[in-house]
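Why this split exists: single-chain examples teach little about how molecules sit against one another. For that reason, every record in the complexes split bundles all components of an assembly together and asks for one structure covering all of them. Below is a record exactly as it appears in the raw files.
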Amino acid sequence: MNWTWFHKLASPPHAYRIAGSLAAWFGWPAFLLIIAGLYGGLILAPADYQQGDAFRIVYVHAPSAWLSMFIYGTMATAAVIGLIWRIKLAHAVAAASAPIGASFTFLALATGAIWGKPMWGTWWVWDARLTSELLLLFLYAGVMALRASIDDRDRADRASAVLAIVGVVNLPIIHYSVYWWNTLHQESTLTKIGKPSMAGEMLWPLLVMLLGFTLYYGAVLMVRLRAEILRRERDASWLRAGAGS
Amino acid sequence: MTTTPLVSAATLVYRRDLLLAVRHWGQAAQPLMFFAMVTTLFPLALGPDLGELRQVAGGILWVAALLASLLGVELLFRADHVDGTLEQMMVSGQPLAMLALAKGAAHWTICGLPLVLISPLVAGGLGVPGAALCTLMLSIGLGTGILSALGAIGSALTLGLRRGSVLLSLLVLPLAMPALIFGARAVDMAIHGESARGPLLLLAAMLVLAVTLAPAAVAAALRISAE
C-alpha cells in the first residue's frame, strides 16, 4: 500500500494548510447547526412537564458532557498514533485538544451545577456522574500540567502521551467505581438508541446540538492545531518562505 | 557474552533496593511517620470522641495511606537516574518492564508493608473495633500495592523535573481514586460488622490489573524521561 499521502498529510506545511481550510469547513456548519439547535431547543421545544423550562440547559450540558469524553478519546488516540508511529503532528493534535477538552468538561460541570440548583436544590451533589466528570477534569489537568512542566518538546509530547493512555485505560475503572460508589443522577436519555425516552420535538434539537458542538470542536481544534504547528515550526524554512500564504 | 537470567536479575534489583533502604532506614521510615502524624491530625481536628471517629476512620486511614504512599514513591527512580544505574538497566538487555516491576515490588516492601503493619495500631486509636483490623490490613495491603504501581508510572514520568512532587500528586491522585473508594468502603463495612468481601475482591482485581499493565507503562515512561 502506498503511504505517501499519509506522510504528506503529516508534514507540517501541508497540515498547516489543510487545517486552515478544514477550520472553515467545520466552523460554518457548526455555527449553523448550533443556531438551529438553539432555536429548536429554546423556542420550538415545549417545556418539560416536570422540570419546566429548566430542562433546556440540557442542550448545552449534554453536548459538553459528550465532548468532554469524546475529546479525551481523541487525545488518547492521537497519543497512541504519536507514540507508535512517531508522528509529531499527532502529538500536536493531542496538545491542541487537551485545553478544549478541559473547557468542555468544565462547561459540563458548570451547566450541571446550574441545572442542579433548581432541580436538586443544591449546586453540587456527590453523585456518580458529576464526580466522574470532576475526575475527568483532574485527568485533563494532569496531562496539561505534565506537558507544561517539561521544557523539552519531544519529551513533553511523549510523556503526556503515556499519561493520556494510562488515563484512558483507567477511565472505565474510575467511571464504574464512582458509579457503584453512589448514584442519583437521572438515567442517560440518549444511550437507549432504539427508543429514546425523550419526545421527538425535544430530541432533534439535542441531536443537532450534539453534531454542532462536535463540529465546533473540530473547527477549534484546527485553529489551535495551526497555532501549535506555528509554535513548533517557528524556525522552519517553509514558514519563512511561505509566510503570509 | 552471557546474560543473567531474568528472574535472578529482577531478584538482584529487588534485593539491592531493600538493602539500600535498610542502609538509609531514616529515609525509608519517613512515609511511615507521615502516616502516623496525618492520622493524629484528625482526632485533634474533629474531637476525641471515639464513636464519632469510628464513623470516619476508614476514610481517614485510607487517605493517609494514599498520601504516605505518594510521598515515598517520588524517590523511586531518582537516585538511580542521578547515578546512572537506570541507564545501565536500560542497556543491560533485560526487559525494563520486569526490572521496573522488581523495583515496584521493593518499593511496596519498603513503604507499603510497614503501613500495613502499623495500621492496626493507628486504627485502634481511631476506635476501629478489633474484628475489623484484619480487613483493614488486607485492604491497606492491596491498596498500597495498587498505589505503588500507579505511583511508579507517575514517578517515571516526572523523573528529573523541577517541582516534580506536586506534579506527581496531580498525575497519580485521580488514577488512585477507584482504589480509595473500594478500600475505604471495605474498611467501613468491616467496622459496621458487615462482610467486606466484595470491595476486597474488587481491590484485588485492580491490583492484578495494575501489576500486569503498569510495568509496561513505567518502562515506556522511563525510556522517555531518561533519554
